[in-house]
Amino acid sequence: MPTQAVDLGGLVRDELAARSPAVEETGDLAPGVMVEGSVRRLRRLLNNLLSNAERHARARVGVSVASTGDQAVLEIADDGPGIPATEREAVFDRFYRRPDARRSDPEGTGLGLSIARQIAHAHHGTLDIADQAEGTRMVLRLPLRPPSE
Length: 149
Hints:
Helices cover about 30% and strands about 30% of the residues. The chain is of the alpha+beta class. It has one domain (about 5-145): Heat Shock Protein 90 (2-Layer Sandwich). The longest helix has 18 residues, at about 40-55. The protein is globular and about 45 Å long.
């Protein structure tokens, strides 16, 4: 997979500008959070996460990009019904669909989160669901790109 330096906040900003979401999208996108990766694949991961959050949100999706230690951290949170702790790993399985998702989103395939996690792993990162009082918060962690010498 060909890689290059990618400004994660810039990539998110571009993706948000290209969308016409049905819900309010807010957040803090730190500039200069650089990762090494495939722009095409990272865009796909981001699109999958945003589309999922938009489908399940009641009114709001929050997006943030920051650096913590040696990691870039992207968080996408929605104010929807949330995912029970007992299903948080299962939603990353191929073709897994929660029963309520089958009713509310009959066109979904159950592949989006699985693909997103595979892309995260291909970039030496992780994609998990974090605790949140209401809704769902996806957390992507990728290694920061070392500064150029």
